[in-house]
Amino acid sequence: MPSFSRFMEMADDKLHDAKRSIFGSSKAKQMQDTYDTSDFGATDVEPGDFAQGEGALIAADRGLLRPEMITQSPGFERIAHNRDVQSILGKLYAFRQTMASKTLPRATADTQAFKAELAQAVGGTVMSLQTLQEDLAQGAETLNSKTGRYRTVAAICASGAVRTKEQINLCNRILERGLLYAEKGYPGSIDPTSPIKFPEGASMEAALLDPSFAYMATYGEEDFQGVVGSGGINSVKKVTEGGQTRVFKEGGVHLTGETAVQQESITNVVERMEVSPMVGQEGGYERASKREINSSYRDAAVSVVDRLFGLKAAVGTSLARTSEHGGRQASVMDLAEGRTANGILGYFGAEEERFLRAQQEIDKLLLGITLAGKNEEEQAMLLQNPDVGNLQTSASQKLTNLNSDRMMQSAMNMAVLDIIVGHVDRHNGNFMVSEAGDLTGIDNDTAFSLRESFGVLGDTLDERKTSWEERQPIVKKAIRGFRTAEGVDLQNDTSALQAFDTNLPVITSELRTKILSVAPDTLASALRGLVGEPQIQAAVGRLKALQDYVSKMPPEKVKKPDEGFTEAEREAFVYNHEGSRMVGNYLAQMHIVASQSLKSTDPGSLSKVFGHLLQQPYLRDYVEEHSTVLAPISQPYSMAKYMRGDIYKLFEEDPNFDIKQAYESGEFMYYVRHLLEKYVSEHDQGIE
């Protein structure tokens, strides 16, 4: 007798056989072709055409099992009165009534009320689908254990159990589009590029059966327009959807074997997320698979939470699938504006800006000198050198003023989102910065940790200045239940601080209202079917802790509309505890590169520029002529270190100073010669 798992594998074939027997080969074949594409947007059946027979076929094509698929199956009359069959039919009829009774909300002036009703309708449907999935799976197993006459119904139930997941995916698509509808202020259509409208007041059944509204896009190699970028876990590609360029990311490849062992950064992220480990160990570590991470669902769930709270802090994301490999789960995201924070040189104040501009222009000059006269192949080889590659990175970074109210507010919004969703890997490559100063979280598939809170939500700068010994009790509390690799001592592991400390010293009244406007059960409903129940409860716990925290914030910590931030508040918000990456400290993360440069006395690129200058006879001969006096600064490094302040003054005195032009014209060399002559005149004590 075939096992239940074998029936699950055979389910689609059995279902097609049943469909042929009910509706005739030509019509069944026509719909089967559509069904086999797994592209639920590709159908020529009108959504309103729900006659009993054809409606069942449409429902099956969309993955929705309806009672008549069983009652009209071959040989049903011989098993119709069986108690187990009747039980399954009863559950199917009850589910259909539930689907008809749950309706989508209508537009209202209170958008949060609309979102709450939407989440409850969709979340309730998902819970019913999950229950039905369990009932169908159990029913298929029970019927499969009986005689052969039950096999067709068993296969139909097994197929229904498998394809119930499609309904859950479509429910999430409905939720996503409903939240977008509210976000855009209830426009006539959801997307300006299409006439699709949100079906206000429609039942969940009608919405799920409407392929023009509820669908998941399918993408294959022919749709991809080049790789956008790659990270430790994913690579992303450009696609076009509805005339809009979006970003596609597959989300169902296992992370196992040598790759996982070698990529410790991936392992650390997985451990911080506390996902379920795979069976077996490698190298002393329990490994988790990317499939268990469910990266596509986590990406989509973060987008749902972002829209639910109206934070505009994460890139908009939809569930999708691949056309290859049997239709793997994937996600497709909006193309976020700006550049990643890794492409930013962030500064506070004019003095820092001048310093960083000088440093960057010197890097650009050295890069040009290094690549000068080389062909494309030689340049490509040189750029593989880490030092030259770093110069190229520095030359491309954008000087950005971090000292704006808009950027602080945007960073706070993303901090709130990351606290709620439990994001554990928000580094500088995982958020974008727009020209206007808005921060947008990308690469959100490491959200939904099982952490019940993000530690102590400190509101004073002093808490960040204490020693490790003083902070240890706080950190211990933050990492309670924190799963990690065998042998790692979390009491001294700075990653604990990186993952679970946060900095929210002040808050705007608007953001405070948004945090308090979403009930925990609304959040739970919105996440049904996207992440598991443990992840949902962890998110609900973090929301409750956050709501408790902001509701108790003293009035002076809550900024009124249009009220700017004080210097003390800015300092508290951007303070970066050494060795930590606190949730919400995104401005500090961008500033840390600049602050390290400001504190450094290493002349870096300038010394290498001097190395090239000293090869010129005009300077080389002068240094040799005065070698005794110039001995302390005769080498490129020591000379650049001595003259660094004078060189940087050129940028301070003239905001438009172009060191590259000065180098090429010889003016910069003349200036260095002038500084050498000045040194000789000041240090020549009659030494011969």
What does this structure look like?
- A hairpin with a 4-residue loop joins strand 2 and strand 3.
- Helix 6 packs antiparallel against helix 7 and helix 13 crosses helix 24.
- It is elongated, with a radius of gyration of 31 Å.
- By secondary structure, the chain is of the alpha/beta class.
- The N terminus is likely disordered.
What class would the helix/strand composition place it in?
alpha/beta
Distance separating the two termini:
105 Å
Beta percentage is 5-15%
Number of helical regions: 29
Biggest sheet features:
6 strands, mixed
Name the helicity range.
40-55%
Mean pLDDT: 77
Overall radius of gyration: 31 Å
Structure summary, number of beta strands:
17
Quaternary structure classification: single chain
Concise summary:
This protein is of the alpha/beta class.
Structural descriptors:
disordered N terminus, elongated, six-stranded mixed β-sheet, three-stranded antiparallel β-sheet, 29 helices
Set out the fold topology:
Blueprint: H1 4-23, H2 25-37, H3 52-61, H4 67-71, H5 83-101, H6 111-144, H7 151-183, H8 204-208, E1 217-219, E2 227-230, E3 235-241, E4 244-250, H9 257-262, H10 264-273, E5 281-282, E6 285-286, H11 290-293, H12 295-309, E7 317-322, E8 329-334, E9 339-340, E10 344-347, H13 350-371, H14 376-383, H15 386-396, E11 398-401, H16 405-421, E12 431-433, E13 439-441, E14 457-458, H17 468-478, H18 494-500, E15 502-503, E16 507-508, H19 509-516, H20 520-527, H21 533-551, E17 558-559, H22 567-574, H23 586-599, H24 605-613, H25 617-625, H26 627-630, H27 636-653, H28 659-665, H29 667-683
Parallel strand pairs: 1-7, 10-11, 14-15, 16-17
Antiparallel strand pairs: 2-3, 3-4, 4-8, 5-6, 7-8, 9-12, 12-13
Helix pairs in contact: 1-2, 1-7, 2-3, 5-6, 6-7, 6-20, 7-12, 13-15, 13-24, 16-21, 20-21, 24-27, 25-29
